[in-house]
Design a protein that fits this description.
Blueprint (H helix, E strand, L loop, with lengths): L1 E7 L8 E5 H6 L7 E5 L11 E8 L9 E5 L11 E7 L3 H10 L6 H13 L4 H14 L3 H13 L13 H12 L1
Parallel strand pairs: 1-5, 2-4
Antiparallel strand pairs: 1-6, 2-5, 3-4, 3-6
Helix pairs in contact: 2-3, 2-4, 3-5
């Protein structure tokens, strides 16, 4: 289905959400929380990439009319108002299966945990899916390998500061001084 972009002057935070009208959602057999892929109909990309986003549905024609796709300002920044885009359903990422595995009490591999963290940071997982992962971990726990993998994945997901080789922790230094006198 081809829809015309309507820039929404709202931010969504970490999720990559878009909004379509209920009538268009019914035509595509979609519900809120489903994923769609957005492409420019001529190039099959949006500035060199396709975008997978999470769908929200407008029940009011004044918010997003039939034939429009509301794109929040922080979801896709490099797209112009009125641009025609191609919209199609897409399956959930593999990390969705990994979350289900954890909910059922399974042990996750390092690669599975990396994918969950990466997809969470990229906005490919909904808030409900992230809450499900946290609940699965809370109920079933994590072993040392899983905790290590999660810590490393979280570390790689952000900026790492290099303070150089001459960095000292005052608490460790204090402990060494204390130990030296006793």
């Amino acid at each position: 289905m081809k829809l015309r972009v309507k820039k929404m002057n709202y931010e969504t935070g970490t999720t990559k959400d878009v909004m379509i009208n209920l009538a268009d959602a019914k035509k595509l057999n979609l519900k809120a929380g489903d994923r769609i892929i957005i492409k420019h109909p001529e190039t099959n990309t949006l500035n060199g990439a396709h975008r997978v986003v999470i769908l929200q549905i407008a029940y009011s024609n004044t918010v997003v009319a039939p034939g429009e796709i509301g794109i929040y300002i922080d979801t896709i920044k490099d797209i112009e108002n009125g641009t025609k885009v191609s919209v199609n359903p897409v399956e959930p990422p593999d990390s969705f299966r990994f979350i289900q595995k954890k909910i059922k009490g399974g042990k996750l591999t390092g690669e599975e945990i990396n994918r969950i963290v990466s997809d969470a940071i990229s906005g490919y997982l909904s808030q409900i899916e992230l809450a499900s992962f946290i609940t699965g971990v809370s109920i079933n726990g994590m072993d040392n390998d899983e905790m290590t993998a999660l810590s490393l994945a979280e570390t790689r997901s952000g900026n790492i500061f290099d303070f150089g080789s001459n960095v000292y922790d005052k608490h460790s230094t204090k402990m060494h001084i204390h130990d030296a006198f006793y």
